[in-house]
Every structure is written in C-alpha cells, then in structure tokens.
Amino acid sequence: MEMSFRKLPDNQHEILVRARKGPDVRLPAQSVGPTMPHDLVHAVVETALGIDDGFWGAMARGATFQGFELVTPRRHRRSGMKVLRRGGAAVMAAELSVNWAYRVWRGLATEGRGVGRAPIDAEALARTGPRLSAAAARWAALPEGGELLWRWGSDR
Hints:
- By secondary structure, this protein is an alpha+beta fold.
- The chain is built from four helices and five strands.
C-alpha cells in the first residue's frame, strides 16, 4: 500500500491511499496539526513498532475510516466496516501507542492527572523518536503542493 501525504496551503494536507485490498481512497483537506499530519505519525510509529493491525494495517486490509472517500465512486464489494469489527480493538491499541510515542517525542506531560499508564516501553520509544524526527523534517522540507510518499511497512 502507498500513501501520499500532500501539503496544501493554510497548514492543510490531503492523503491519497493506493494499492490496498479495497479501492483507492482519499482524505480531503484536513488540518496538519503542530508538526505533521496525524495519519503520518501513525505510519511512522506503526512501522517503527511493527504494528500491522493498527490504523494503516486496517486500511491495507480494506477498512475505510470516517472522512476518507473513494477516489472513483463505486460500490465497495468488501465492507470496510467488517475489517474494523474484526480488528477494532487492535486499531484502538495502536492509537494509544501512537499517541503516547508522539506525546513523548513532543515533550508533553507523561505523568499526572488524566495521562494514564504508558502503553509502550522505553525500548519502543527509542525506536519511534528518531523516526518521528526524520518524518517531521521530511514534512517540514516539503514545499506547498509537494507530496511525501510512504509505503506501508517501510520507512519510505
């Protein structure tokens, strides 16, 4: 599967997802956030940790999440909801791991009221931090209209 993260004006981005079990999908313009697109953070952390049943693994198997739309409108034979029903717990576990790795990388609080226990250990964080830094640098270097390609399961 290949994901194309395109940088748009006004701190926006869009995503095109190709070569997956379902039809090609796109996420129309969304806010980037403070450093890079949230779904790019997922790609980086899930790849670094070998998570193949998280957000992007579910997308590769044909899931379609809210906000994504078919590139070519047609009937989707394989329901993305079936993929999510079978693997929803793993997707949520990946969300917690990704958010924790991103929180630590950004230097945000990891202790205190409402933070909870760390879902990943220091060894996992040592793998995610440098990769998040590299992805953030790649994103920052993109000109408006440029795209960052990511192949699922690799660092590129």
